[in-house]
Amino acid sequence: xxxxxxxxxxxxxxxxxxxxxxxxxxxxxxxxxxxxxxxxxxxxxxxxxxxxxxxxxxxxxxxxxxxxxxxxxxxxxxxxxxxxxxxxxxxxxxxxxxxxxxxxxxxxxxxxxxxxxxxxxxxxxxxxxxxxxxxxxxxxxxxxxxxxxxxxxxxxxxxxxxxxxxxxxxxxxxxxxxxxxxxxxxxxxxxxxxxxxxxxxxxxxxxxxxxxxxxxxxxxxxxxxxxxxxxxxxxxxxxxxxxxxxxxxxxxxxxxxxxxxxxxxxxxxxxxxxxxx
Length: 277
Ligand SMILES: C[S@@+](CC[C@H](N)C(=O)[O-])C[C@H]1O[C@@H](n2cnc3c(N)ncnc32)[C@H](O)[C@@H]1O
What we know:
alpha/beta, Chemotaxis Receptor Methyltransferase Cher, domain 1, Rossmann fold, 2 domains, seven-stranded mixed beta sheet, 11 helices, 10 strands, binds S-adenosylmethionine
């Protein structure tokens, strides 16, 4: 069944207004592939009937489910590897030295999807920085979608998911087998504080954060939304804090508070050092 112009416009406006996500012209197939299963699950005979009903109703949990279903949740362990290498070899050692007095360090995975990103950070901290035991280490992980967040909190992954990016030594050490799946060990799971959070809405309280991973999410937004979000990121970073974006994302020509560190290829940024008080 094809998506009517009215239905396309409706979904496009809804996800843009509520989540900042831009659906380009010609992406009707995304609506069809992502929302048809939801329409069926919700008991409708057709996608058109389902979308018609949502258009008549005021905003409620069903609209929220639609928005969640329209998000792209692609992720993997150690995604793009370079950012994690930079964290391991340079950034975390520098932070350990800089924070030695207060022994406090905070990470935020700001669109964590099913959890591979924050768990990668947590496993790295356990594996390479045993000296952090006894420090106050916070790793916050948030996402707009309660569905992916529920999976992240569960920390259970399929064989296919652990085959993507996760070194065998980490699999053996930090997961247990659970039938056909792999369960992240409780000692790693409890290192993460999960939160539902929409980056385009008012942010609930966040402390100063040493390392922000906001990767592969700005790509779904327009320039204005990206700018607004990056403007909210800047005050959260201390002078020697770091912002990681996805490899296809940049702060350049969007928010001039940031500069690349130490080279743009790891998609890592700091506050412009000249502007730091
Ligand atoms: C492609 S995944 C990126 C996952 C991970 N950061 C990575 O790089 O592998 C994008 C995530 O952004 C989330 N997202 C989309 N719009 C959002 C918004 N307005 N606020 C918070 N999260 C959002 C989606 O739910 C999805 O899980």
